[in-house]
Design goal:
With 610 residues, this protein is an all-alpha fold. It has a domain at 55-258 and 269-441 and 558-568: Amino acid/polyamine transporter I (Up-down Bundle). Helix content is 67%, strand content 1%. The protein is built from 23 helices and two strands. The chain has helices spanning 3-17, 31-39, 41-48, 55-59, 76-87, 91-104, 108-132, 139-146, 149-181, 206-221, 223-251, 274-285, 292-296, 305-334, 345-351, 358-391, 410-426, 437-456, 469-492, 497-520, 537-550, 555-585, 589-604, and strands at 192-193, 203-204. It has a two-stranded antiparallel ribbon with strand order 1-2. Helix 10 (206-221) runs antiparallel to helix 17 and helix 19 runs antiparallel to helix 20. The two termini are 17 Å apart. Residues 1-25, 431-436, 460-464 and 588-610 have low confidence and may be disordered. This is Cationic amino acid transporter C-terminal domain-containing protein. GO terms for molecular function: amino acid transmembrane transporter activity. It is found in: Membrane. The chain crosses the membrane at residues 79-97, 109-129, 141-161, 204-221, 228-250, 270-290, 311-335, 355-381, 402-426, 432-452, 473-492, 498-517, 529-551, 557-575. Residues 530-580 form the Cationic amino acid transporter C-terminal domain.
Length: 610
């Protein structure tokens, strides 16, 4: 887009909208102004809820609201390191034991391979958006340009809340794993009991607070230096994991891969519970892969997005899959599957061996490092999510500011660091296994749908062919419904030939739906630099698998998701829609400056895609 044309367009928009509100924040200038804004809520919702920006606007006008620009200093190896650090946390030490003992047996190796394939499909969807639109907002920005402001806000709000709560829980678990590493098994010895407070809120964890604040300072100082620290910690952590793998293969016995301890009560074989057990195990261990999505939020700081992002995101998923499969195989060789400790599978396998108890201390040290790296990557990602949410106008603009010296979103990083530390100080949050759980899985589902919609409906400008919208929306809804039917049958239908036949029918219907859509509807656009291969089969498979994984979560996860979503809707109706209306349609003195800054960044936007 021509720079002059962009300035004229934005200036015209500001002059036309100046009657509604005198300046950004006009709805909140007084109680009377806020009352008038609330009276106009239905009209503003109609205008803003489905309002979508273009990728050009996200990289120019919206990006300019942060003031200084983030420094583009990351390369593909930085992204691989961040992906490894974000995914290989402490969760794998828990999920492997539970999936092996309860569902898959030694076939958990195949479960990890299936889960890795699912993660790779979702990673492809993220990569297409990140290469085409290298901004820091990740899924929030992708959904904003595709489905509009409300869908983006709801998913972004759930992501922020899930990140904050899970980071607080993981920080508190660092205390427990650090104690294991130095031989202090009881976490209560590291915490201060406070009489009079309710259970679950009565143990002060200063170690967790210190870890969060230290990481917050690090990510505020420099993204590149944070990446270097993460690279060093991740390298040491991977060395610990390789040590565990070597010890497992050395001390293990291949007979444990097919022979349980109690043959009378537990089936034998490599797949003791059949295909159902393998897939149920894959649903559980898939949560160990969550973290690569945070890498997409670093796109604005990557030197060459078209080359570095595909290698960094996909490469990290492939490497993690290999590590996980080797870890699962070594553990299955150490003990028969029915003798594995579900809570501490690796350390438990060595505690019972004379002279090998020290290995459990090594495992505790490795898990502690994994917690540090996963925390750092998660906090980098959540700060960039909040920064771009602030840019969009639905949250205070103060959160969007990028410091000119550090080139990092200091305000968003500091705010979330203090908030997370406050939660970790008192609150015992038992969400370690589902680190980002339903919120992230829902966003994966939405991003896969968004890739299909944007390819077949939305173009890069404002003149998208909306006649294609209904066929694409009907396809996405029908395919999701088929995936839901398959998931419900898998979870609740009694075993037998009828269940198998119905599952096969659902699978055939899913394939037929995708095939018909591909034959009848042509793509509206093709990515210039990098695109998801085999469109629409790959994102459709991602949609199907994410619906299946969502069906495996427990009831409290859905209750938490519903609560967060309802709270987010309330915030949007009472605050965000009015702030967004002021920023985007209210006009005022800031519009001209934003236009000029946006034109400048738009003129440089091609540099992101080199």
């Amino acid at each position: 887009m021509d720079k002059g044309a962009l300035v004229v367009q934005v200036m015209d928009d500001s002059s036309n909208g100046g009657v509604g509100a005198a300046a950004a924040g006009g709805s909140f200038s007084s109680l009377r102004a806020y009352g008038r804004a609330l009276a106009q809520t239905p009209r503003r919702l109609a205008r803003r809820a489905c309002a979508a920006t273009s990728p050009g606007e996200e990289m120019s006008r919206v990006c300019a609201r942060s003031g200084a620009r983030m420094a583009r200093r990351l390369r593909w190896h930085d992204l691989v390191g961040l992906g490894l650090g974000g995914m290989v946390g402490a969760g794998v030490f828990v999920t492997t034991g539970r999936a092996t003992r309860l569902y898959a047996g030694p076939g958990v190796v195949v479960s990890y391979a299936i889960a890795g394939l699912c993660a790779l499909l979702s990673a492809f969807c993220y990569t297409e958006f990140a290469v085409d639109m290298p901004v820091a907002g990740g899924a929030f920005s992708y959904l904003r340009v595709t489905f509009g402001e409300l869908a983006a806000f709801l998913t972004g709000a759930n992501l922020i809340m899930e990140y904050v709560f899970s980071n607080a829980a993981v920080a508190r678990s660092f205390t427990a794993y650090l104690g294991t590493a130095v031989g202090v098994d009881a976490p209560s010895k590291w915490r201060i009991a406070v009489p009079g407070l309710p259970k679950g809120f009565n143990e002060v964890d200063l170690v967790a607070v210190g870890v969060i604040l230290l990481i917050s300072v690090c990510i505020c100082y420099s993204t590149k230096e944070s990446s270097v620290v993460n690279m060093v910690l991740t390298a040491v952590h991977v060395a610990f994991i390789l040590f565990i793998i070597v010890m497992g293969f050395w001390r293990g016995d291949t007979r444990n891969l097919t022979r349980p301890v109690d043959l009378a009560h537990n089936p034998g074989g490599f797949f003791p519970h059949g295909a159902a057990g393998v897939f149920n195990g894959a649903a559980m261990v898939y949560l160990s892969y969550i973290g690569y999505d945070a890498v997409s939020t670093m796109a604005e700081e990557v030197e060459r997005p078209s080359r570095d992002i595909p290698v960094g995101v996909s490469g990290s998923v492939v490497l993690v899959t290999l590590l996980y499969c080797l870890m699962a195989a070594s553990m299955s060789m150490l003990l028969p599957y029915d003798a594995i400790d579900t809570e501490a599978p690796f350390s438990g396998a060595f505690k019972g061996s004379s002279g090998w108890g020290w290995v459990s201390n090594v495992i505790g040290a490795g898990a502690s490092l994994g917690i540090l790296t996963s925390l750092m990557v998660a906090m980098l990602g959540q700060a960039r999510y909040l920064c771009v949410i602030g840019r969009s106008g639905v949250m205070p603009a103060w959160l969007a500011k990028v410091h000119p010296c550090t080139a990092t979103p200091v305000n968003a990083s500091a705010f979330l660091g203090v908030f997370t530390a406050a939660l970790a100080l008192f609150t015992e949050l038992d969400v370690l296994l589902n680190l980002v759980s339903i919120g992230t899985l829902f966003v994966f589902y939405m991003v896969a749908n968004a890739v299909v919609y944007r390819r077949y409906v939305a173009a890069d400008d404002d003149d998208a062919d909306h006649r294609r919208a209904w066929p694409t929306l009907v396809f996405l809804a029908a395919f999701s419904l088929v995936a839901l039917c398959f998931t419900l049958l898998w979870q609740f239908a009694p075993a037998g030939r009828a269940r198998t036949g119905l599952l096969a029918a659902c699978g055939a219907a899913a394939v037929a739906t995708v095939g018909a859509f591909r034959a009848l509807v042509a793509e509206a656009r093709r990515p210039e630099l990098w695109g998801v291969p085999a469109m629409p089969w790959v994102p459709a498979a991602s949609v199907f698998l994410n619906v299946f994984l969502l069906g495996s979560l427990d009831r409290p996860s859905y209750v938490r998701f519903g609560f967060f979503t309802a709270a987010a809707v309330l915030v949007y109706v009472l605050y965000s829609v009015h702030a967004s209306y002021d920023a985007e349609e209210g006009g005022g003195a800031g519009a001209g400056a934003a236009a000029l800054d946006g034109a400048k960044v738009q003129d440089e936007a091609a540099d992101f895609k080199v």
